């Protein structure tokens, strides 16, 4: 068996999954720093999102991309996700049992490790996106980035209500959570160099205040060559992100 490295992950929140102030720009025109800055009361590019705000706007407001709500007429599953989200109580509270998240790139061993830890601890294993919406992933994966990210972000909030309930009964082990959504969003949405990432203390890296927090987050990493072999052995079609990762080593630096 290959060695899988584990290190504690830094909590993250996505760059701009929620909406900002209305900004009207000509095609191709870039927003000024003032336009991008969070307005009073939050809701800017790096504001602290409540889920309704989080899902109310596009990744980059100046691009005028549709939201989950706006695309519900075209994609009935978007309406179904929002209905499920509506039913989840706000500000979920954790039970008395620990909640442990495993994060990592594809094929780093999350499924293998989480199943083993669940068995060892007699725990409950949950995944993001949760089972109740995961059958719709292929639909949203083919949509523009803002809709895709809104789907995964909503999934995390629906998952939070499952975690709240399960953690009253047993330890909860989770395969991906907010960190994945945030990291993939940052990695794919921020263009430019690694040194252009928001600075280390930026609000963008804070956990969303209204999302249930896990007790521990562990990031699994494996040697890139070994990971490539595992992906090859698995023989599944590469995800868009994996293709980008292969083509651009900056992507991996941004993700991790
Ligand atoms: N420690 C290990 N040594 C060797 N092979 C491993 C190890 N852990 C997992 N694998 C193998 O690597 C492949 C990927 O593992 P796994 O499905 O657990 O990863 P994952 O992180 O859940 O992937 P994904 O996110 O893409 O679903 C599987 O074929 C698995 O058998
Ligand atoms: N919380 C999450 C979970 C997943 N994603 C997206 O799914 C892809 C990975 O899914 P696996 O089934 O292979 O684990 C990942 O590339 C993300 O696009 C997410 O954004 N947020």
Automatic annotation (TrEMBL):
<keyword id="KW-0496">Mitochondrion</keyword>
<keyword id="KW-0665">Pyrimidine biosynthesis</keyword>
<dbReference type="Pfam" id="PF02223">
    <property type="entry name" value="Thymidylate_kin"/>
</dbReference>
<dbReference type="InterPro" id="IPR039430">
    <property type="entry name" value="Thymidylate_kin-like_dom"/>
</dbReference>
<keyword id="KW-0067">ATP-binding</keyword>
<dbReference type="GO" id="GO:0005739">
    <property type="term" value="C:mitochondrion"/>
</dbReference>
<dbReference type="GO" id="GO:0016301">
    <property type="term" value="F:kinase activity"/>
</dbReference>
<keyword id="KW-0175">Coiled coil</keyword>
<keyword id="KW-0809">Transit peptide</keyword>
<feature type="domain" description="Thymidylate kinase-like">
    <location>
        <begin position="102"/>
        <end position="253"/>
    </location>
</feature>
<protein>
    <recommendedName>
        <fullName>UMP-CMP kinase 2, mitochondrial</fullName>
        <ecNumber>2.7.4.14</ecNumber>
    </recommendedName>
</protein>
<keyword id="KW-0547">Nucleotide-binding</keyword>
<dbReference type="GO" id="GO:0005524">
    <property type="term" value="F:ATP binding"/>
</dbReference>
<feature type="coiled-coil region">
    <location>
        <begin position="226"/>
        <end position="253"/>
    </location>
</feature>
<keyword id="KW-0808">Transferase</keyword>
<feature type="region of interest" description="Disordered">
    <location>
        <begin position="18"/>
        <end position="39"/>
    </location>
</feature>
<keyword id="KW-0418">Kinase</keyword>
<dbReference type="GO" id="GO:0006221">
    <property type="term" value="P:pyrimidine nucleotide biosynthetic process"/>
</dbReference>
<dbReference type="InterPro" id="IPR027417">
    <property type="entry name" value="P-loop_NTPase"/>
</dbReference>
<comment type="similarity">
    <text>Belongs to the thymidylate kinase family.</text>
</comment>
